[in-house]
Amino acid sequence: QPILETRHLRYRYEHSESWALDDVCFRAPKGKITGLIGPNGAGKSTLFLNLNGVLTPTEGEVLLDGEKVSYTRAGLREMRRRVGIVFQDPDDQLFSADVYRDISFGAVNLGLPQDEVRRRVEDAMQRTGVYELRQRPTHALSYGQKKRVAIAGVLVMQPDVIVLDEPTAGLDPKGVSDIMKLLCDMRDQMGITIIAATHDIDIVPLYCDYAYLLKEGRLLMDGTPDEIFARP
Ligand code: ADP
Ligand code: ADP
After folding, report:
1. What interface predicted TM-score (ipTM) does this complex get?
2. Is the CB of 15 within 6 Å of ligand 1?
3. Which pLDDT value is given to residue 231?
């Protein structure tokens, strides 16, 4: 059973004539890295935002661990705790004075005891390699460092799934492999399911267990990297 699934999902933005997503049946296998690949305008960001309840499907449904997501306050709170999202631009999710506080924000918000918050933040900082940056003001970090801090801030929630929009955009080749290896570690060591929406099909053979190709709001094909690249 997939951990996160959409069934015949359709999404239309307000005042738009066309479907940004049309009949999308997407299944993210548990504990794997799934690539969601497509050119600009394919609908990746729209699907990304439907996978954690930021957007509500116009038609169709989203299932988390086999259960239909309910778009109530409680249902959305549960979904946002279990499905972490990492935006393309880290400045969209980092707004505290320093790295430590940025990473702890979600855990503090959950109302966890201080000791538990500290334990989770330290663990997340170690895993993402930002421990040395913990006292730095977030705005003074490089783009790649900010991306790591954003991922650490999601890890403290101990999510089942992390969905990332364009995790490799704007990074040099070393930055790309560092981020993708970090995602592989999270899969291997923590069992977290990773969904990476990207126009960068090159990550598929290197890092993905499975991939979906999206174009003009529709899914074109899905498969393992071998299956995807075997086809003409
Ligand atoms: P991608 O992330 O693959 O580039 P998007 O999900 O951003 O694709 O866009 C899918 C389609 O939805 C595009 O046609 C885009 O122009 C449209 N779209 C995206 N955001 C909005 C919006 N806020 N309002 C209206 N249309 C939008
Ligand atoms: P991405 O590929 O990361 O979605 P885009 O350039 O497609 O980047 O979109 C950048 C921002 O503009 C996003 O917030 C998206 O929702 C919004 N957007 C994209 N297309 C439209 C559109 N046709 N109308 C309004 N907003 C849009």
Report:
1. 0.73
2. no
3. 65
